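Re: Re: ligand-bound prediction request (bumping)

Still looking for help on this. To restate: I need the protein modeled with adenosine monophosphate bound, output as structure tokens. Inputs repeated here so nobody has to scroll up.
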Amino acid sequence: MANDDYEAGLKMLQELTTNAQQIQDRLLCEILVKNAGTEYLRRFLHGQTHKQLFKTNVPIVAYEHLKPYIDRIANGEASSDILLAEPVAGFSLSTGTSGGQPKLIPFTSETTNVTASSVTLYRSVMKKHLGDIDEAGKRMELMFAKPDVETPSGLKASAVSSRIFKSIQATLPKLYTSPFETIFCRDTKQSMYCQLLFGLIQRDEVIMIGSIFASTVLRGFKVLENNWQELCSNIRTGQISDQITDSGCRTAASLILKPNPELADLIGNICSCKSWDGIIRKLWPKTKYIGTICTGAMMQYTAELEFYCGGLPLVSSFYGCSEGAIGINLEPLCKPSDVSYTFLPDAVYYEFVPIKEECITESPKQVEFSGVSQNESLETKSNDEDTEPVDLVNVKPGRCYELLVTNSKGLYRYRVGDVLMVTGFHNNTPQFRFVGRQNIALGVDVERTSEADLLKAVMEAKTLLDPLGFILTEYTSYGDTSSTPGHYVIFWELKAKEGNNVKELDPKVMEECCSRIEDSLHFTYRMYRKENIIAALEIRVVKQGTFEALMSYFVSRGASLSQYKTPVCIKPKEALKILDSRVITKFFSPRTPI
Ligand code: AMP
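Reply:
Sorry for the wait, this slipped through. Here it is.
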């Protein structure tokens, strides 16, 4: 990054965060003036553009409400101003919860510029804390593009990440280890294998390892663990495996892969070590950090990542969604549990719906920088007086909010579905900790358990596994109501640190894990359990590779691998079958919760 861009980026950040209110008001005014005549807004605003009218008349909506309008655009209805005055240039495929079909979010040519300017800001912050990475070497970023889908209108639908990968195509050879052909390979297994191969070949140049989400980095390490001998053999002979049939990948390999027995021996020696503790530093000795999102549901993967990275910092640099909200982590070197994102006020117009289940921490200090894994409690407190959505600058530290966005993509007061907690302010702009998804609720009676509640409870229980030599690599949940009373089922995929067998898991410890989860869940759950309205919680341990199969299922249904997040609660029956058919052993909580 050029020095001028860097200075300009930091200056812009100061200006944006200082003038947040004015920028937000101006942005809303521009969106309304431009789109007041659209079919959708006319229904509520009758051509007017006042902020107050917007707040009283335009309803707060979820995707399902806008879907009929979006579908009409996607189906090519001639009328051009259904949701937006500007022509729609295409659609983003949002994975959101990864729970179902991807959503279509329209975009226009204008929205691309906002994304570009936020990338400059984020890079300036990174340069401030980590130096000029681009000059120091290459990034081994695991990237997976999803092919565009054509809608009946002829407009393309693509994952935001895929468009970003396309936009950096020219810089790939200089800044990244993965060639374009591997990122755009349609077979994600071949793509992953080849990206690892290219990363290993260029190991001396690698200064950063990452992917958008932490789960993908770990997936990369699983593939490496299963394939390192073959990768070494490819490096030794200079010939890529026969299992790589994609012509793009083979051509890319033919340009760079030369017989290198020395490198193959070196890598082979490192990988054949009994423990992979700190392996990243050994394989890629110049790595400065792991760049990947480790917050929210990704928090569960930090322990395993830390195991591999041997003290390298885990950097969660941004929060973003296809709907356009963007937040930057201004302290990229802080611990994953302390990460907060400063929202950029020029990206979209934000509103925040206070959540009745208010987040209260035990001491105000912990509100500022606390992670779910820390000594923090999320309790339920009804607070009816302030349920109205508030503007960006009016949120209160320590409180949780559901995010609404209004943007120039045709979304008006749209529920993104994310829950955020205010941790502080940078100038006049709030900083948020990502708490979880609002609509992922596990429940078997009238009680509801949020993603954050469940994550916190699972994090508590998994500490019991450490002395047994097992790591929890993935989990998900399911509310089983097939018998009465219903009960919570938690699927766990475990990895033995050093050759232990999952079948030999100590039942006493595993039962205690079930109870520990129950002890850590919210008051209503525990009360219902004591009154036998909910039956004992069950942990089902599944075979290695089960969550890989689950991911393949969701990717086959349209999710982008780069944006994929394991669903915290399973709804589709087919997905449940994938899990149930791979269960090795089951444990139940032997006692009622404390
Ligand atoms: P998508 O719908 O595929 O664009 O994915 C966006 C969603 O990913 C957001 O709405 C969040 O739920 C999640 N997400 C994005 N950034 C972060 C982050 N930094 N921490 C936790 N979750 C995130």
